[in-house]
Design brief:
- A hairpin with a 5-residue loop joins strand 1 (about 85-90) and strand 2 (about 95-105).
- The protein folds into three domains: about 15-75, Orthogonal Bundle (Arc Repressor Mutant, subunit A); about 85-130 and about 205-240, 2-Layer Sandwich (Alpha-Beta Plaits), CATH 3.30.70; about 135-205, Alpha-Beta Plaits.
- Strands 3-1-2-9 form a four-stranded antiparallel sheet. Strands 5-6-4-7 form a four-stranded antiparallel sheet.
- Helix 2 runs antiparallel to helix 3 (about 45-60) and helix 2 packs across helix 4.
- It has about 240 residues and is of the alpha+beta class.
- The protein is built from eight helices and ten strands.
Length: about 240
Amino acid sequence: MSGHSKWATIKRKKESTDAKRANVFSNIGKELTVAVRAGGNDPTLNNKLRDVIAKAKANNMPNENIQRCLQKASGDANSVDYEEITYEGFGPCGVSVIVDALTDNKNRAAADIRCIFSKAGGNMGQIGCVSYMFDKKGVIVIEKDNKILEDELMMEVLENGADDFIVEEEYYEIKTSPEDFYTLKDYLEHKGYTLIEAEVKMIPDMKKELTVEEENKLQTFLDKLENNDDVHSVWHNADY
């Protein structure tokens, strides 16, 4: 995958996802609930919650909506309890796929996601059937800027937990372990760097090349997954 095509994907990822998912606030609300239940309602002590709040603000979620979700998650014993579930399988054209879901009904989520796999000519498998082909990594992307000294940035990130520093045509890509991700992200933000992307991802060890026709078929499948209310993230090993 060329740097240019990946950069274009990064830049259009958020807006295309938001356009397809009219229930983006609802999904972020689920994430806020899960984060509070896992680590409390103080974002200074809960890294996951802090990042979800940042995501909510980046998606123009009103502050009152955010606070309402936090209060409900931390104080309402009758509020919906969402469960994090991962599904794995093979999508169209033999592409390996991992689906992360946030759901209040795991039976419904499993049935719906299995149906999407089946209708696309794929099949959902057991946990572990494809995840061994992926590495969980924190990925941070910084757009190139004349003010950024490349050697200085590289030394800074390597000294603060980065595993890899990749120089592309239009951006820098930094990879780290999930354990070091939040520390490095905080460091870069405090130093004043603008992060174009910062996320813990499932990165495939090897990518599967597709024809244009296969790419279109896969994209239709991915769109159906991402439009499902229970689906939070989708990872795959296709090389567009």
